[in-house]
Amino acid sequence: MNAVPKTPTSGATIHRGENGTLRNSRGELLNIDYGLGGITTQMRSRSLGDDLHSDSMVLNLGPAHPATHGTVRIVAELSGEKIIDADVEVGFLHRGFEKMCETVDYNQVLPYTDRLNYVSPLINNVGWCLTIEKLLQVRVPKRAEYIRVIMSEISRVSDHLTCLGASAMELGAFTVMLYFMQARESIWELIEEVTGARLTISYCRVGGLKADLTEGFTERAHAAFAKVRTQVAAGDRLLSRNRIFMDRMCDVAPLTAEQAIEWSITGPLLRACGVNYDVRKAFPYSCYEEFEFEVPLGTKGDNYDRFLVRMQELEQSLRICEQALKNLPGGPISVDDPHIVLEPKDRVYGSIDGMINHFEMVIKGVQPPVGDVYLPVEGGNGELGFYTVSDGSGRPYKVHVRAPSFIHMGSVRKLLIGANIADVVPTFGMVNMIGGECDR
Amino acid sequence: MDTNQQLDYIAMENGRSTALIELLKAKFGAQLLSAAVELGDAVVEIKRPEMLAFFQLLRLDSDLAFNMCISVTATDYVDSRPERFEMVYHMLSLTNLYRLRIKIAIPEEAAEVDSIMSFWPGANFMEREVWDMYGIRFAGHDDLRRILMYEEFVGHPLRKDYPVQGKQPRVALRAPEVRNTAVDMQRGDLVRIGGRIKT
């Protein structure tokens, strides 16, 4: 091995071998990638030679770095502190969601959708059920639609609280993280009360819901919303005009509206660039046209705008919830069609046709007509769309998820080039990649 | 089924989609293999050789202005169709709020389409995903690597002939010269295990 002395001023002598390996004076390998993530460095030689110190440094962030919450690897090429190129690797959490969906029936896909964006699983449930209902051409009763809206908005609040709290913590504001986690806890208690689970809830069903709201839900929801508002206001006071926070966020990783659109960015990231596109307004689903809410827009499209847009959306989501709770209509929560939803148990045990329908549903499942359908909903991070092909059997022939996180990760390279190494953390926090959704 | 349970927002989207289909028919005419409104979605089928011109007009024409590529995916019809794969593109026009689904049938022997990255750079990851999952190549894509799977993965998992429980060969160590040093670590004298001091 031809060992070449490198940077003799730095104390320990580093020898460069072939393939960019670095060894110390005892011949031990320095740039080891143990596969555990962390940060390993590797020097890359440029043609000008070593003495001019014109090397760029390759810095490997992740896949298990704490700031990459979730699993993603960013291989950044640095010139000093500036990122001159970055390669974003995703896929570490790939579980074959789309392949598994082809092996189960339409209702059994729901637990898999819980694990897409696991911070707001209810929105995924709603998106999937609406897609199949569009294929079946049924519309669930109004009460079910309202409950779906309430649950989606509650989930959006929890999604944004997690994103903002985690990002604040990564910039040193640990108090805000604790406040927001407390607020999220009160939201999750509501979810737990209605659905029986906190994270993987599987609450919706094709053609309706698993269960109605619990008694006294409205009062407890209002109490929880008051708590969320208090905590968010406290976080707002601590962060929004905080000098350190603003220095880290303002003008970092900006995008113009045109760039954001051509990079297929949706959701809070797109709205931070000033583009007024919200699926709930543009393509209303599940009665969203009946609610009054505003779409917060940013002006500069930098990280600070992304933060502010999410903070504003919290309040708008709570507004929608309150309107829905106030005007919550009565009536059934599932469509009255034994070929779409399971029969009630008294009919299953009390009548022969009820039992036949029950068996048919359990064995064959929902059988939508042949066709394909795409339906978008507004997820926590952007447009969440399901594209499904039905061949007329009880199992989906193909499922494709338009996962906003995955598509946003495609633009992270563009966001990072030109930024400083310290900007990776807030930028990545504001992109809010959710591993389950990104890698599927 | 109760008639007022019918999807009225399909009817709402129908109007916009019908207008879009009429517009597309006027602009492209014979190029479209089919153009219809299905369940409220505007769907067109085009031929593989004409796709670049078609997408270019979608992007640049001011009446259409499809400025966002929503998703790129494919479907494998291995047993049911002569041309095995069908590329499925979803496009969105934020100015006109049009949504369009474009389908292109491609045979297995020539599983390659043109990349639309030059019109919509956001299609980069989506096309890499289709290559990874279905093995369809994209001509003109400058960075066509696997994205969700690892480089050593054999086959394309979303193809219908890939088994659900498919096994993969073991991947060789990427840095075989690196030895696990954890086995050399020695416990300090003061660590108590099970009530006795281990030396």
DSSP strand tally of chain B: 9
Q: Beta fraction of the residues of chain B? A: 25-35%
Percent in strands of chain A: 5-15%
Distance from N terminus to C terminus of chain A (CA atoms, Å) equals 43 Å
> What is the CATH H-level superfamily of the largest domain in chain A?
Cytochrome-c3 Hydrogenase, chain B
CATH class of chain B: Alpha Beta
* Main sheet attributes: strand count, strand direction, barrel closure of chain B: 5 strands, mixed
Query: Which architecture name of chain B does CATH use?
Result: 2-Layer Sandwich
Tell me, briefly, the overall form of chain A.
Answer: globular
Instruction: Could you tell me the CATH topology label of chain B.
Output: Beta Polymerase, domain 2
Description:
The complex is a heterodimer of chains A (440) and B (199). By secondary structure, chain A is of the alpha+beta class. Chain A has helices at residues 97-101, 109-114, 121-136, 142-170, 174-195, 217-239, 243-249, 257-262, 268-272, 279-282, 303-326, 345-350, 352-364, 404-410, 412-416, 424-431, 435-439; strands at 4-6, 14-16, 22-23, 39-44, 56-61, 73-79, 82-89, 204-205, 208-209, 371-378, 383-390, 396-402. In chain A, the strands form four sheets. A four-stranded antiparallel beta sheet of chain A has the order 4-5-6-7. With 199 residues, chain B is an alpha/beta fold. Chain B has one domain: Beta Polymerase, domain 2 (2-Layer Sandwich), CATH 3.30.460. Chain B has helices at 8-28, 51-60, 123-134; strands at 32-38, 41-46, 68-76, 85-93, 98-106, 112-114, 137-139, 192-193, 196-197. In chain B, a hairpin with an 8-residue loop joins strand 3 (68-76) and strand 4 (85-93). The termini of chain B are far apart. In chain B, 32% of the residues are buried. Residues 1-6 of chain B have low confidence and may be disordered. At the A-B interface, helix 1, helix 3, strand 10, strand 11 and strand 12 of A face helix 1, strand 3 and helix 3 of B.
